[in-house]
Amino acid sequence: MSIASETHFSAPEVYGSRAIANIARALPFVERAYASVRFSILRPKLLSVMDLMLTDEGRILDVGCGFGLFAAYFGQTQPKRSIVGIDPNARRIDMAREVAKSIGCTAHRFHVGDVRDVPLQGSFDAAYVLDVMHHIPAEDQRPVLERLRDLLVPGGMLLIKDITTEPRFGLLFTEVLDRVMVGWKEPLAYRHHQDWGAMLTSLGFKVRIVRVPDVLPYPHVVIAATKL
Ligand SMILES: C[S@@+](CC[C@H](N)C(=O)[O-])C[C@H]1O[C@@H](n2cnc3c(N)ncnc32)[C@H](O)[C@@H]1O
């Protein structure tokens, strides 16, 4: 008997289109349109990179979870994940709860709060922060990463998807679209990926970074930081 026939690996399709369709069905019209934009920005390559980096079971923190789209996605690709989502926007948290309930992610939990001070019980096997770090004021970014480190178990993975600051045109393109979403008053504090790498290393993480090219000029980076 060959090795291949002795071992059974489940290999979900790379894009998880069934998982995304389930999420879309659970959302009202406007949020469904937003979800389709988010899933077209965080494309198959990005989602699959992140899915494989995250532990396939255990307790995972989703920082700035928004409508809970990625908690719903990562919860479907690996059903043993229990995801705790936090976001200061109460309406988004309500929606995240609805979506998780309707797709059967019953172990997921969602709390309204700011990552800087929301009360969180217990430790986490992993945490992810998808396009949120640049919404946190520059002077608070290091304390946030410090807090996330303290919430992780040793060996736990902190996964950050953000935007790097080069090429300049890519940053400008992203900033214009971010401004359309958040207006002019909110701070947007992007950093170069090497800056994030140095900060995370100094906080006691082992860091790997990949840039993920896109057809649109978003300068995406995925940072995988393992707590030592
Ligand atoms: C671009 S959206 C990304 C939402 C979600 N992570 C996703 O990928 O669809 C940024 C999110 O970060 C949240 N956010 C902003 N500042 C935050 C903070 N200090 N603590 C936690 N979440 C925050 C916003 O409310 C918003 O939902």
From TrEMBL:
Residues 60-156 form the Methyltransferase domain. It comes from the Bacteria. Keywords: Methyltransferase, Transferase. Pfam families: Methyltransf_25. GO terms for biological process: methylation. One of its GO terms (molecular function) is methyltransferase activity. The keyword DNA-binding does not apply. SUPFAM superfamilies: S-adenosyl-L-methionine-dependent methyltransferases. This is Class I SAM-dependent methyltransferase.
